[in-house]
Amino acid sequence: MVMLEVAVALWTLARPPSGPAAESVASPSSGPAGDSPVTSTPSPERETPTAAPAISGPVPDGAPRTTDFRQLASAAATAIYSWDTRSASYSEVYSRVRAWWHVLPDGSNPLAVLVQEFEATGVNAGSFASLASQQAYRSASVESLTCDAELAKVREQPAPWEGLHVCTVSLQVLEQSTATRNSYTASVSVMVNCPPASTAPRDRCAMVAFYASPSRIVY
Question: Model-level pTM?
């Protein structure tokens, strides 16, 4: 599967892979093991809620149980950019973010993408260890939220199935440690899958991808 370049064509991430899809799982300490976006276009049968059983499962810590994709995108973006080395290890921080990432049945949004995009927020296993020695922590708050047809790229390439949404969230980020205090603005694009999509949980929305790499932010 070929990595999506969001700046070129947003919804090419919904095209099916050429061969059998499998979930790629990467260790948070090893870095990206591959480069694959959400690339599945559901068949007409899968586009209807009755075509496949709706998926259910536990709600990640801190995630609202909601069918409001804007609310979930805002909460996800905040969670992605928030961590505290004083109370959690890198593996624990990664696991929390991974819990938000709902892998699609065809495996077209593998965890290798999650690892790459999480590291694009400015932290990896190595840097986290250094930050921990400074008791560093990071928090984020939403400044603005732009979704679906409000985004030019989505108007050019509408979502390939009902229930799939993309929101770009502008965050005010604050990093603090015993040595420094740094405030800046960051953007993250969050893809959310909601009912009536057959690949969504039956009673809520779920995050299926996020993009923090500057070249993949959706505007």
Answer: 0.77
